[in-house]
């Protein structure tokens, strides 16, 4: 599903559940109003869900009670992102709660240039053969941009009650903070 502009609701209650599968993307939503994704099974080769150029101080982007997975043999090979949040404007709030992220080789959740992010009560399980995985990667720079565009002034982050499963690899990481731009900081990080 590819949408440019406007709000969106995918799934809903458990009675409104959905299955979304794509060789490249499951949901690619750009320049949006509020979005709710809930009770969905989402699998793709490159990115299960990519939310891009998020706007509006009153908008809430809610990703709750979903199962994310990877389609093997599809898309960009080892570079998979089950959920990517890109370029959220100042005042935008993103809630990622009560999801299952499974069978990823590289990233479970990748959040680039966000203002307010809550990641709570999720289960992260990379594929058993994953070697260089990062379950939750948070960065001040948007992937693939040079020079980096303007970022929000502060990155408010709450990471609470998540389960991070591992693999036999010693190179895997549960949480990564990457401060690529020295003028932008992670301000107000809560871990619990």
Structure commentary:
The chain is mostly beta strands and 192 residues long. It is 0% helix and 51% strand. It has strands spanning 2-4, 8-11, 18-22, 25-30, 35-38, 40-44, 47-52, 60-64, 67-70, 81-86, 93-97, 100-102, 107-112, 116-120, 123-125, 134-139, 154-160, 163-164, 173-178, 185-191. The protein is globular. The termini are far apart.
Helix content: under 10%
Q: What can be said about the biggest beta sheet?
A: 7 strands, parallel
Number of distinct beta strands? 20
The helix-strand sequence is: EEEEEEEEEEEEEEEEEEEE
Low-pLDDT segments: none
Mean pLDDT value: 82
Q: What is the general shape?
A: globular
Q: What spatial order of strands do you see in the largest sheet?
A: 1-4-7-10-13-16-19
Q: What class do helices, strands and sheet pairing give? A: mainly beta
Task: Summarize this entry quickly.
The protein has strands at residues 2-4, 8-11, 18-22, 25-30, 35-38, 40-44, 47-52, 60-64, 67-70, 81-86, 93-97, 100-102, 107-112, 116-120, 123-125, 134-139, 154-160, 163-164, 173-178, 185-191. By secondary structure, it is mainly β.
Features:
192 residues; mainly beta; seven-stranded parallel β-sheet; 20 strands; globular
């Amino acid at each position: 599903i590819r949408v440019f502009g406007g709000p969106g609701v995918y799934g809903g209650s458990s009675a409104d559940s959905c299955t979304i599968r794509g060789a490249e993307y499951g949901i690619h939503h750009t320049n949006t109003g509020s979005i709710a994704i809930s009770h969905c099974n989402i699998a793709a080769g490159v990115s299960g869900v990519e939310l891009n150029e998020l706007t509006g101080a009153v908008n809430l982007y809610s990703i709750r009670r979903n199962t994310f997975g990877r389609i093997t043999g599809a898309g960009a090979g080892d570079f998979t992102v089950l959920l990517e949040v890109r370029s959220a404007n100042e005042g935008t709030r993103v809630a990622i709660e009560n999801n299952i992220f499974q069978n990823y080789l590289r990233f479970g959740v990748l959040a680039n240039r966000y203002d307010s992010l809550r990641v709570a009560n999720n289960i992260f399980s990379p594929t058993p053969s994953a070697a260089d995985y990062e379950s939750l990667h948070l960065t001040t720079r948007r992937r693939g941009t040079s020079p980096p565009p303007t970022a929000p002034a502060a990155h408010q982050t709450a990471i609470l009650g998540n389960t991070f499963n591992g693999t036999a690899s010693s190179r895997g990481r549960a949480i990564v903070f990457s401060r690529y731009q020295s003028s932008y900081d992670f301000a107000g990080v809560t871990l619990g």
